Task: inverse folding
């Protein structure tokens, strides 16, 4: 177990503790198995935002789905809200599920186009038998107001709303059971920056008012810098770096993080410093037998990196990285 | 016909000059202006970024240049390519111009590539359209095009099928097909929106290089203000189908004048915000007015504008000089605005 002894000392109770999660997809026929998530451990404290960042094949979306129990793990354990989350079933699972809800990238596909907005927001209340039937309408109205919509929206259909409004509806539905943790998978990446900012502000307001914790999955580093308390950078199914956004983005320890940060356009009108180019593209998740998964693309890889797998170790207080040469590759400055 | 002949570009006129372009699209059976009197020019080798929220007319503007408008849409206004007026040309001539002088690059190249034919066959088809050459020569040319777009292992790439390629490789392959006909202008509609950040930066670097090496002009339609600020020469900010601000890209994005541009730029979080964790973002209240309910007789942005003052409700602003740019805002109207040029 690589999970985070230092984190426990901070006092806030752990809401979720994921240990050594593993997920393998086996293609039909004779294809090689794809290791989507490969020994990932992290914790989320009550009221906190942990961001998962990474590119295609990093496993960030799969981790969200494992945490939400939308898919089964092939290994590892999750403790959530005081229970062995993956062992729960039946009524115990249904009751605990109230505390963990999901918001997806595209409300277009997560909302039912043929169902009125009010019925969709009320659905978790009915399924969970939280509110008696006669109170449903009032509860729905309050939820819609909470996410900045007119309660009259309840009588309309999703297609009558813009993308940003649909995401508000999805958030209202997720909030219906008063969860403690929201898994948000790219919640604003389908939206214009102006509308994305509105939704992000809503998530921040809800966190402040309701004490929500977020598992915030995103490819957008500047956005993550703004919303996250801690950030984990994933590459080919493994966490390669973890720490506060200021530390991870300000002084990356892992060369992959440095390359990611260098590909974000810099602020200000001055001349841009060079990017760290990476050969090839983010991998397809094919299993490697030994060595660091990033070594084939790493600008500073040495023979050792192809022989041994670096562990995710604390390098400086509060920051962990899985690299034999942490901090060696700097983000170019002018 | 001369203007279409490759190798005979005229240097005395802009590559593309668009004047008072209007595109009306059918909304519930009624024609509504998605693009409403837009004028601009692109010089050879120049990159013009077109930004604005969804529904402001960005994509429709690009489509109008290629005559790829939706069913029932109507285009008016003047489009001059190499000094030649394209308003009256026939459909068959349009299709010659399209692809030959102006090429389109989409967000998702997978959808634009033929899934059942190799990349080599698709480049070859483009090469054959402009006159044959022998097969061996075309093959060499196709391979050199893939090399030019930095496709890994070009010789092998020719025999690959699109589904076997990564997103970045598909975008490169699609660019090679577009370049086969040696266009002068690339209309790139969100060319990197579906790519990972590091791959997207590679593709944008490639577009920059093609621009320098081939003097290939680019109309970059994007929601990514940070990249537009870095890579474009000039920028056009569209709001509700009209130009809200236009000018050198650095001025538009780093010293925005129009309240809309300023609000749009302020919405984008920055990496240096890491120490500002959990602070609310700047946002623009409301949304772009629906096509069917565009305000008339007032500024289109008035309902969302933090700087609204008396004239905004009763008249439509023109484009006024504002710093190095032009801004459609009464703040810069010398006859009535506060006249400062630096609001608030």
Result:
């Amino acid at each position: 177990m690589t999970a985070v002894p230092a984190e426990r000392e901070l006092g806030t109770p752990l809401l979720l503790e994921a240990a050594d999660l593993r997920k393998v997809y086996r293609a039909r026929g004779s294809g090689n198995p794809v290791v989507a998530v490969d020994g990932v451990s992290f914790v989320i404290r009550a009221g906190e935002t942990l961001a998962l960042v990474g590119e295609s094949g990093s496993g960030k979306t799969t981790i969200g789905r494992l945490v939400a129990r939308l898919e089964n793990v092939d290994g590892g354990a999750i403790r959530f809200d005081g229970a062995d989350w993956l062992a729960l079933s039946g009524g115990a699972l249904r009751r605990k599920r109230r505390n963990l809800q999901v918001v997806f990238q595209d409300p277009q596909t997560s909302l039912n186009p043929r169902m009125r907005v009010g019925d969709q927001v009320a659905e978790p209340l009915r399924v969970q038998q939280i509110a008696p039937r006669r109170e449903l309408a009032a509860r729905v109205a309050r939820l819609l107001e909470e996410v900045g919509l007119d309660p009259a929206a309840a009588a309309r259909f999703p297609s009558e709303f813009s993308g940003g409004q649909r995401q508000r509806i999805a958030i209202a539905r997720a909030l219906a059971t008063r969860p403690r943790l929201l898994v948000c998978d790219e919640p604003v990446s389908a939206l214009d920056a102006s509308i994305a900012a509105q939704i992000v502000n809503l998530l921040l307001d809800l966190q402040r008012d309701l004490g929500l914790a977020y598992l915030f999955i995103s490819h957008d580093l500047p956005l993550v810098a703004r919303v996250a308390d801690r950030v984990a950078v994933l590459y080919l199914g493994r966490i390669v770096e973890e720490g506060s956004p200021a530390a991870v983005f300000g002084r990356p320890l892992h060369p992959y993080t440095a390359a990611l940060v260098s590909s974000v356009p810099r602020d200000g009108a001055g001349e841009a410093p060079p990017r760290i180019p990476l050969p090839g593209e983010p991998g397809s998740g094919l299993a490697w037998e030994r060595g660091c998964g990033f070594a084939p693309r790493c600008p500073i890889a040495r023979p050792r990196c192809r022989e041994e797998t670096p562990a995710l170790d604390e390098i400086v207080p509060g920051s962990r990285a899985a690299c034999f040469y942490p901090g060696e590759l700097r983000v170019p400055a002018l | 016909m001369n203007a279409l002949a490759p190798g005979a570009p005229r240097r005395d006129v802009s590559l593309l000059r668009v004047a008072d372009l209007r595109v009306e699209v059918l909304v519930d059976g009624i024609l509504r202006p998605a693009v409403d009197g837009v004028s601009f020019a692109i010089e050879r080798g120049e990159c013009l970024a077109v930004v604005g929220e969804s529904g402001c007319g960005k994509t429709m503007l690009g489509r109008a240049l290629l005559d790829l408008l939706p069913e029932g849409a109507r285009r008016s206004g003047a489009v001059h390519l190499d000094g030649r007026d394209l308003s009256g040309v026939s459909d068959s001539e349009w299709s010659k111009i399209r692809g030959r002088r102006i090429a389109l690059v989409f967000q998702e190249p997978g959808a634009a590539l033929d899934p059942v034919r190799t990349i080599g066959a698709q480049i070859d088809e483009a090469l054959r359209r402009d006159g044959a050459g022998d097969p061996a020569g075309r093959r060499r040319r196709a391979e050199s095009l893939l090399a030019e777009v930095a496709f890994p292992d070009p010789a092998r790439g020719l025999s690959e099928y699109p589904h076997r390629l990564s997103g970045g490789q598909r975008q490169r392959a699609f660019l090679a097909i577009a370049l086969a006909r040696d266009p002068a202008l690339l209309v790139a509609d969100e060319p990197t929106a579906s790519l990972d950040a590091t791959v997207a930066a590679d593709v944008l670097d490639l577009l920059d290089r093609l621009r320098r090496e081939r003097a290939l002009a680019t109309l970059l339609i994007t929601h990514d203000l940070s990249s537009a600020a870095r890579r474009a020469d000039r920028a056009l900010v569209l709001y509700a189908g009209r130009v809200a601000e236009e000018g050198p890209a650095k001025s538009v994005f780093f010293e925005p004048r129009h309240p809309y541009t300023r609000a749009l730029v302020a919405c984008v979080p920055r990496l240096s915000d890491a120490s500002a964790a959990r602070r609310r973002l700047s946002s623009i209240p409301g949304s772009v007015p629906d096509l069917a309910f565009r305000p008339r007789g007032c500024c289109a942005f008035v309902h969302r504008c933090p700087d609204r003052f008396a004239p905004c409700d009763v008249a439509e602003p023109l484009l006024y000089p504002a710093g190095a740019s032009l801004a459609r805002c009464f703040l810069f109207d010398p006859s009535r605005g506060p006249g400062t040029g630096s609001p608030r």
Notes: Residues 193-210 of chain A form the longest helix (18 residues). The radius of gyration of chain A is 21 Å.
